[in-house]
Amino acid sequence: MKKFLVAVMAMMLMLVGLNEMKIDESSASGKAKSVKKIAWEHAGELEAQTGFEKNIGTAGMLSGSYKDYVITGGGANFPYESVLNGGVKQHYSDIYVLKKEKDKLTMVQHTNLDYEIGYGSSITTNEGVYYIGGSPDQERANDITLFTIDKNKKLKVKKIGDLPFTISDGIAVEKNGKLYIGLGKQNGTGSNKLYEYDVKTSKTKELAPMPGESVRNQSVAQLLNGDLYVFSGGGSVAYTDGYKYNIKTNSWSKVSSVTVGDKQLSLLGANSVKLNNDEMMVIGGFNKEVYDDATKNLTTLQGEELQAFREVYFTADPYEFNWNKDILIYNAKKNTWRSVGKVPFDAPCGEGLVLMGNMIYSINGEIKPGVRTNAIYSGTIAYK
């Protein structure tokens, strides 16, 4: 077993989230508890990927939990040269298994797949963590894979089946042995199509496409009260809208946009976890104004003007991008959004996000275009 890796550090204790939110844990009376605060701590780093001396952080990671274990890894970064200087994106095959022990994460295994992964969709279920698509290897980019941990604390990787298309930057949820997969880039092209994959029969069925935009990358999605909820994402611009897909009727309807107060927010590139049947939590998201402006300039400017814009854009500090730092809660029953405080670290996009009991873990992610963080943060949820 490789060396102990992730130890919770006492430094950088930060309190956020003083507003109320409900978590799917019950007291003796059977009533749901509400959160008093979330205490965030820097919880260490993942060790270097195989063949590298240092882990500089990745985005687009596999992430989920199985029993008392966090399973994470893969993703991509720019280890050799910056994006400004034409750096090439590197994907990874490294998978890390971390054991949750009270308020600590301890690494119990660091292993490698036979192929690299990144920007697929992760689903935490009782059966294990499903990983959908997300690989630079075209023969693996349509795989459906199940990750579990055996009795010897070793990672087990089982290929469940193939989709009839490759997919990345999409969404996926599970209900009653069926996976609902879609959006993102399908066969390399932006799409709004949704599919049902039956784990038992290995059959794929096309469903009603998501209305609105025909290209919708890096949205957030969760299964709430039996329906699929999808928010934001983007293409040439960032979106702030939301839709509900009714699985029984194979139909979509519009729900609340991502609105806090009088401001609509983009969740493009964010990650989410399901809190209970009614609620999901979202962390991260590109700023719509900054993203839209950058996309326009990077695709329309030429020559010296383009180079000047790139220089300013890619050398700016993370705070200048104004990515979403609010910890957002969507309540499907009330069809409302609210903020429960802000993360006290650089807002991440493409991070791994894992909820285990009263702990939430934010793992790596991008903190500005082309730059990742190697940090892991743990948030302890204190209940009233």
What does this structure look like?
The structure is a single chain. The chain is 7% helix and 47% strand. It has helices at residues 288-300, 303-315, and strands at residues 14-16, 22-26, 32-45, 62-66, 69-73, 76-77, 90-101, 104-117, 121-125, 128-132, 143-149, 155-162, 167-168, 171-175, 178-182, 185-186, 189-190, 194-198, 204-206, 220-224, 227-231, 242-246, 251-255, 259-260, 263-264, 271-274, 279-283, 326-331, 336-342, 352-356, 359-363, 366-368, 371-372, 375-383. The strands form 9 sheets. Strands 1, 2, 3, 30, 31 and 34 form a 6-stranded antiparallel beta sheet that branches. Strands 4, 5, 6, 7 and 8 form a 5-stranded antiparallel beta sheet that branches. β9 (121-125) and β10 (128-132) form a beta hairpin. α1 (288-300) packs antiparallel against α2. It is globular and about 55 Å long. Residues 1-31 have low confidence and may be disordered.
Q: How would you describe this structure in keywords?
A:
384 residues, 7% helix, Neuraminidase, 6-stranded antiparallel β-sheet, mainly beta, 47% strand, single chain
Total E-strand runs: 34
Strand content: over 45%
Major sheet details: 6 strands, antiparallel
State the CATH class.
Answer: Mainly Beta
Average of the residue pLDDT scores? 90
Provide the domain count.
1
Q: Provide the CATH architecture.
A: 6 Propeller
Helix content: under 10%
Span between N and C termini?
40 Å
Low-confidence stretches: 1-31
Q: Give the overall shape, derived from the CA principal axes.
A: globular
Q: Determine Rg (CA atoms, Å).
A: 20 Å
What's the name of the CATH homologous superfamily?
Kelch-type beta propeller
How many helix segments? Answer: 2
Quote the CATH topology. Neuraminidase
